[in-house]
Specification:
The complex is a heterodimer. By secondary structure, chain A is mainly β. Chain A contains no helices and eleven strands. Classes of the chains: A mainly beta, B mainly beta.
């Protein structure tokens, strides 16, 4: 069974701090995606990482896909209150049919001004 | 705005009842997905449709059913509701329904069963 485990579950920091959240699995994934979900809204895709060792940057957010394609991390530099939300990683569900994703349970980030 | 519309936004009903959740996908998207989000289980895939046909099934209970209509909108029917069915139900759509086709989520329907 494919599982994506995210850590930490909760993170509360002050504005300006740096942070890293993790997404780990015992299974190999062909790609992983990161979503951010704000209260009252659906998840919004931030990035897709496809190649082992790949690093992608989105402004102050840096995403890395592990060399073995079993894990990924999201690093935020100089966090801002607008970064507050639930960060979810997701990967293709090979056990089922094409197209659907399995999600980790997420890291709930709170950035205080 | 993702372009995916879900109605209603909130739904409160009693145990044993039946409800219908509606989703209009983003213009041009042929595939629709339904997900259930609860605090303890996270986002769980329920079912996927592509151009009116069922494509994949996940952890969907037998009391739940869905369909995608010719105009591509989809409905999720939940019957014999139990307290444990209280959750956020999200619809997402994508162009092709393949792994690399990004999902666009609606803002969900919050179902409360009392």
């Amino acid at each position: 069974t494919q599982l994506l485990e995210q850590s930490p579950q909760f993170l509360s920091i002050q504005e300006g701090e740096n942070l890293t959240v993790y997404c780990n699995s015992s299974s190999v994934f062909s790609s992983l995606q990161w979503y951010r979900q704000e209260p009252g809204e659906g998840p919004v895709l931030l990035v897709t990482v496809v190649t082992g060792g790949e690093v992608k940057k989105l402004k102050r957010l840096t995403f890395q896909f592990g060399d073995a394609r079993k894990d990924s991390s999201l690093h935020i530099t100089a966090a801002q209150p607008g970064d507050t939300g639930l960060y979810l990683c997701a990967g293709p569900n090979y056990g089922g049919s094409q197209g659907n994703l399995i999600f980790g349970k997420g890291t709930k980030l709170s950035v205080k001004p | 705005d993702s372009g995916v519309t879900q109605t209603p936004k909130h739904l409160i009903t009693a145990t044993g009842q039946r409800v219908t959740l509606r989703c209009s996908p983003r213009s041009g998207d042929l595939s629709v997905y339904w997900y259930q989000q609860s605090l303890d289980q996270g986002l769980q895939f329920l079912i996927q449709y592509y151009n009116g046909e069922e494509r994949a099934k996940g952890n969907i209970l037998e009391r739940f059913s869905a369909q995608q209509f010719p105009d591509l909108h989809s409905e999720l029917n939940l019957s014999s509701l139990e307290l444990g069915d209280s959750a956020l139900y999200f619809c997402a759509s994508s162009v092709s329904g393949q792994f690399f086709s990004p999902l666009h989520f609606g803002n969900g329907t919050r179902l409360t069963v009392t």
